[in-house]
Write a sequence for this structure.
């Protein structure tokens, strides 16, 4: 028989290791003294003593009459407390927060959307004037559970043009593309489920999946889509429930899925019972449409996401899900439970803007302007020794490698002091293997000060 | 030693009971064969055989190379599959779905909002015309992480008038009041945490908390607030993390919290380390302000929620959280992760409408009209033998008991066939003890057909 001191230490070590492994999250009640004693075949008094000592050192807190709780931040789900603690400069939320928060004086080559002056402002003004004359229901009432019927019908016709065949009953409007993905995660995932993402991928997928307590596995992304061998291995080793990706213009790489990779991904997904979310919010920036997983798959296991925040306006929130028919009822219940349906107004404004003759011309001009900005930005970056990983066919993003030995996170911190918001590579990388990459938004890189500040930061000693 | 057949049956019974108890939810991977064999001290071959038999009967599914999974609906989180399976007529989502879905020909005395013609339509039209002339950023860009600064400052001044002292940095804008509560649940709750609700309470709290996999405990609600003795017992027995309630005008009862109960609830919450969400979306309907938990507590452990969907417009989505200062950073991260911030447009329209001189006059007229509708509706209900539980001081809701022996769910189903949407009591009740209650919205009960259809349904044999 061990000494009592040793036995107490064993209980303390057991609890501490479970806290460290996040098997016991902050706020969790410890097993009752009695249950713990039974489980470890120790006396109740030993466990009481161990718990008291853990309380004294602050690892747990006692609530009189109710037991012992794991101490920690007030918020068990503070995102920064989940998973390995990264430098805040490469935290998945760092780029979003900086890009959303910084004022008009800042330059934002790291941000994920177009400058306000590139958006469909004229169409928005027309849509708002039309709304001011809309009927009472449109102005004041809730939308139906699936959302604005005329917009859903219009979106179905629009999707059909890219080969995605969805009935209006398979289309659910949401407040944003992000909310759309969030609803699907709520619908499909249990805490602890594994989700595949591209490495690199849009950083907010990491933040969102943390909020769902998912186990995230990265698959290296190539110029044509995910690395198929690694994808297959990940399916075999991790039995993921879901894969989240972009097909058209991949964020952050600007790569485009090839038909052969699309087909192979779907075949593997079929065999493994894997669901897929295809986030397609950059579709309208494409010059020629890339293959869509949702088109090949016929919305059997792929949900297709879109929004209008990158083209018409981010100030009015509207996104959508085209999903397998069997998912819609559950997704709608979850939408009502967590956001009580939607409004009519944003959907109405989007429909007016999309069907306005000016929208097509506006987007043609934006695509041309982006192509010019891409050329110009890549030359200016190459002059600083910053090389694109590939030359994107379209879109606003260029995924670029810094000169040898440069630390993107350190450079981002330095540039932020000079009012330039960058997007350091490891914010996008599950494996943290993109420490020498930056994602540039070519539409936000017109000002030569971006390159001056960047040149100084690269030249400075670390 | 047991016979092998008995041992196999034991494994099958163990798995089945865990599925029934929802310890294993649909989609969950079963423990590996090896782990299960170790845990039950049985041979691997016994467990393999048991799992295969469970697969043959469809309780679990085998995924080659990855193990066995609990079968079930494609969606582990289909809300109707969580908890006891209720009659769809008293499912927490039934009332919302019916009220949102049914067309213009239907009457909706069960719905939770005003008729479109009672809303602030004139103010909305003015706000939209003003927006059509707003500057580019307002029309096209994302909001800052906390949301529209001028609206937040205005709301702080408005809250101060009811005694809730919040700095603008403690105020976070959301897409809706429901999203506000959802964010707080995401911030505070782990799956399995206990949450207290009033019994009866707003039915969507049940739907929302199911989506969070919370363990919900109901506390009977009295004319002055929660039953304090039962509240104290619930704290002692269940160590809840959160209590969700309305202070001003309680949904569905129309009751008002008294100062003495408010004070006592906060004292108990302090002692138990309980967080509170005070959903105050009906504040503008009050004639005289009731005590607010957030005012008494000084936003130490109470978060205060508001929205504009019940007064200005439900077509434009905008809500807010006034929260303890320490929660804001985490709530903001979660908001960005799950809905990528918000838009500027809805907040701008709300600010324009609220600061318009017409809003105060509009709400005065609405309150007067509601008081008249309350009198008239209660008399018409009393003529049918339907008695109010109490006479509300203000608001749109009357919580009423049907004549002896009536089944509110059956009556709601009957009336729905005649185009009248009712809100049956058990949709609001955790204990399912309100089977003879209906919630009436007096603003939606002007048409005499409501009472004709109701009279027929009550008179009909069940």
């Amino acid at each position: 028989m061990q000494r009592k001191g040793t036995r107490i230490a064993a209980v303390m070590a057991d609890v501490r290791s479970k806290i460290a492994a996040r098997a016991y999250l902050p706020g969790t009640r410890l097993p009752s003294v009695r249950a713990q004693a039974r489980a470890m075949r120790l006396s109740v008094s030993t466990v009481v003593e161990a718990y008291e000592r853990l309380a004294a050192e602050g690892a747990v807190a006692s609530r009189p009459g109710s037991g012992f709780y794991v101490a920690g931040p007030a918020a068990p789900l503070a995102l920064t407390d989940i998973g390995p603690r990264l430098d805040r400069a490469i935290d998945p939320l760092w780029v979003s927060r900086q890009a959303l928060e910084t004022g008009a004086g800042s330059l934002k080559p790291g941000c994920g959307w177009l400058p306000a002056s590139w958006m469909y402002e004229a169409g928005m003004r027309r849509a708002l004037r039309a709304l001011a004359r809309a009927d009472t229901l449109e102005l004041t009432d809730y939308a139906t559970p699936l959302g604005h019927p005329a917009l859903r019908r219009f979106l179905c016709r629009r999707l059909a043009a890219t080969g995605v065949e969805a009935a209006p009953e398979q289309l659910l409007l949401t407040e944003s593309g992000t909310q759309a993905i969030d609803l699907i995660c709520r619908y499909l995932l249990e805490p602890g489920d594994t989700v595949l993402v591209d490495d690199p991928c849009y950083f907010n997928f990491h933040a969102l999946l943390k909020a769902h307590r998912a186990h995230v596995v990265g698959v290296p992304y190539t110029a044509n889509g995910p690395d198929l061998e690694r994808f297959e291995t990940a399916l075999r080793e991790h039995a993921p429930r879901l894969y989240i990706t972009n097909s058209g213009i991949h964020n952050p790489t600007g790569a485009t899925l090839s038909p052969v990779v699309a087909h192979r991904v779907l075949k593997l997904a079929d065999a493994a019972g894997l669901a897929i979310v295809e986030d397609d919010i950059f579709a309208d920036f494409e010059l020629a449409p890339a293959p869509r997983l949702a088109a090949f798959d016929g919305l059997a296991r792929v949900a297709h996401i879109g929004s209008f925040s990158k083209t018409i306006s981010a100030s009015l929130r509207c996104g959508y899900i085209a999903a397998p028919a069997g998912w819609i009822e559950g997704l709608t219940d979850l939408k009502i439970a967590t956001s009580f349906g939607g409004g009519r107004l944003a959907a109405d404004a989007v429909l007016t803007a999309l069907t306005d003759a000016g929208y097509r011309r506006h987007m043609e001009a934006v695509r041309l302007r982006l192509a010019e900005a891409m050329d110009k930005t890549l030359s200016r970056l190459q002059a600083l020794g910053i090389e694109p990983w590939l030359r994107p066919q379209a879109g606003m993003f260029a995924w670029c490698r810094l000169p040898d030995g440069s630390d993107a996170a350190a450079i981002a911190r330095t540039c932020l002091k000079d009012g330039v918001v960058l997007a350091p590579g490891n914010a996008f990388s599950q494996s943290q293997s993109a420490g020498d990459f930056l994602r540039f938004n070519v539409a936000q890189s017109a000002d030569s000060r971006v390159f001056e500040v960047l040149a100084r930061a690269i030249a400075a000693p670390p």
User: Anything to note?
Assistant: Residues 410 and 462 of chain A are 7 Å apart (CA to CA). Chain A has three domains: 4-70, 80-117+360-459, 119-358. The first strand of chain A starts at residue 60 and ends at 63.
